[in-house]
Write a structure and sequence with these properties.
With about 280 residues, the protein is α/β, with parallel strands linked by helices. About 45% of the residues lie in helices and about 15% in strands. The chain has 2 domains: about 180 residues, 3-Layer(aba) Sandwich (Rossmann fold); about 90 residues, N-(1-d-carboxylethyl)-l-norvaline Dehydrogenase, domain 2 (Orthogonal Bundle). The chain is built from 12 helices and 8 strands. It has an 8-stranded mixed β-sheet, with helices on both faces. Strand 4, helix 5 and strand 5 form a beta-alpha-beta unit. The chain is globular, with a radius of gyration of 19 Å.
């Protein structure tokens, strides 16, 4: 596959991470966000990733030359071969954004949503050409996590999934293909483990550290479910759990009180300095 022009819409944790790996793979990347203060922060985070990448031995020194920030959505997506949205996990916000993207992006551009749980079919239903949309669920931190979950749907055009798989491989990722279903494969399994760990902590079964250590040493997980929740964001996990509970109607997806309380207090994990753990720079 030839090198591509990629637009990433949403400059938060996932967005700037996706932009970095795309530029690292040699793509020309435009990163945009509707929030005025998000782009300078994202650019600073990318610069940190570049510095870390050089230390890791990645060919990261020229990433900054291939990655630009754009304040206007149209300027970012107008000539893109691939557009990836990575905005807040809200169905209506994503649908409106994808509609705006479709009106400006080239007719042949691949459109992708980085949603971790929302229905790709529902997102595609708002498009004039629903077959060009696919789910591309990246994992945090994007530059280290190898998996990309490619989510297809019944209305996808022939070749759309194959294009997304090829693009993920171009980024150095390992794609899996999953049919559109609430929570897909990764969130549906991972959220259950995380919520049960929270209930155990709530009930005083063990400390957060020991619950995580049980999974890390007993099941060879690289990171325990509570620390992983801190990295993902407690607010993100809560939104996913609420969505899965509402759509699948299974009791093990009901968010526990400890999660709701922490989100209400603003304890969202690493990004706020406190979640199930205390974090410091």
């Amino acid at each position: 596959m030839s090198l591509l022009s990629v637009a990433v819409v949403g400059a938060g944790t996932m967005g700037h991470g996706i932009a970095y790996v795309a530029a690292l793979a040699g793509c020309e990347v435009a990163l945009t966000d509707s929030r005025a203060d998000a782009l300078p922060q994202a650019r600073a985070k990318v610069d940190e990733l570049i510095a870390g990448g050089v230390k890791r031995g990645e060919q990261a020194a020229t990433v900054g030359e291939r990655l630009r920030v754009e304040r206007v959505l149209d300027d970012a997506v107008r000539s893109a071969d691939v557009v990836i949205e990575a905005v807040v996990e809200d169905l209506q916000i994503k649908k409106r954004l994808l509609g705006d993207v479709e009106r400006v992006a080239p007719p042949g551009a691949l459109l992708a949503s980085n949603t971790s749980s929302l229905s790709i079919s529902h997102l595609a239903a708002g498009l004039r050409q629903p077959g060009r949309l696919v789910g591309m669920h990246f994992f945090n931190p994007v530059h280290l996590m190898k998996l990309v979950e490619i989510v297809t749907h019944h209305g996808a055009d022939p070749g759309t999934t194959e294009r997304a798989v090829a693009f993920a491989r171009q980024l150095g990722k390992e794609p899996i293909v999953v049919k559109d279903s609430p929570g897909f494969a990764s969130s549906r399994l991972g959220v259950v483990l995380g919520l049960e760990a929270m209930r155990m902590l709530e009930q005083g079964v063990a400390s957060a550290e020991d619950i995580d250590k049980a999974m890390e040493l007993g099941y060879n997980h690289p990171m325990g479910p509570l620390k992983l929740t801190d990295l993902v964001g407690l607010d993100v996990r809560l939104a996913i759990a609420e969505y899965l509970h509402a759509t699948l109607k299974l009791p093990h997806y009901e968010p526990p009180t400890i999660l709701r309380d922490k989100v209400q207090k603003g304890e969202l994990g690493k990004k706020t300095g406190k979640g199930f753990y205390s974090w410091s720079d």
